[in-house]
Amino acid sequence: LFLSLFLTYTKHTHIHPLFSLLPSVQLHKVAVGRAADLLKLHAEHLPLRALKASGGEGNLEAVAEYARTLGEQKEQLVETCRLLCHVSGTEPLEITCIHAEETFHVIGPQIISAAQTLALHPSSKIAKENLDVFCEAWESQLCDMAVLLREINDVFEGRRGDKRAYIIYNKHSANLKTVKAVKLDAEEQSTIAKLGLELRLLTSDMDTEVEKWEDQEHDIVRQGQSLSSMAYSMYLFTRGEGLLKTTTDLFHQAEVLSEEGLQLCSSLHTFSTQLMDEQKVVVLSEMEKLMGLCQQLQMGVRTPVQGKTATFQKVDSSIQNTRAIITVVIYLLPVCNKIVRKYKSERSSLGSPQSWRDRQSSTAVKDDVLNGKNSNGFGVKSLEQHMANLTFLESK
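The line above is the sequence of Catenin (cadherin-associated protein), alpha-like 1; the predicted structure tokens follow.
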């Protein structure tokens, strides 16, 4: 009832006085809940598929039926965007909500019109391609809305300010001095936008897993937080925002991320020495995967390239490798957390005075751990030492 009344009186940036008296928490909960339900409901894009199929078959009657379904979906999404606008929390997010509303409002009728045209000319390649373009734009906007929803949640819960960007000191610049610093043009920015959105969703998932740990000072947690923050700054780069302004900035950031990932591998190796055989195999297997991805990213960003096309390919590769690294860490975090919780539970039931942290610190780390890599590449080095090599800046 509350939602129905709200949507009746809400118009873009104005809100009925009745609802201004309601708690913002309640309004946020309703808006976010409705948006999440809609995104889940429309994740399969069934009306779009049906319109493409019936249009290709020249079935005008079926097109009309599915057009009504899409029209209803459009109205639901437009209303939800209006609702999100009031709980967005920041002006940029409010503008994004308005843009999303306008996009759904415009593209919906265009899809229907294109489907009708295809039904009248089912053999027309141009008509089919035209419908495909509008459908892709609709799907892309739904994907953007999922990211928007998470960002609104982050602002509401006070998490967005925790995101930080890292810039490396000049000692790393020698590896990249042959790379000319350039900015991406509009077309290139658009091309990597999808990768950036995927990276943003992954960092949100990682933050969620990190928050589940009781011991927020655990090395695995702290290094996971660092990786998430650096990946987030790379996501901002794909939007033309944040502290990373040029491709050289991005490559610097990617190199730091790869080194932090290798430090996490060291922590995971130390962690694995406490585990039973089956648990140890799982952790070491994922650690080796993570190590390979970090080394691949590191090698890629340190390889000089020339020319606009090669530079853009390097940007694309760096973001894809970063996405793969974050995906592995997201898998590892709950696995390790479960092991830590299980050990603490067993220790508590046995009345053992030794803590997990004490047990970890009492295990000596061999000098030749992980193939004897030095501290600049893959040796054991404290997070504090690693952070001493970084300039720590707050991301906007």
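Note on the example: The chain has two domains: 2-156, 161-394. Residues 1-22, 161-179, 355-396 have pLDDT under 50 and may be disordered.
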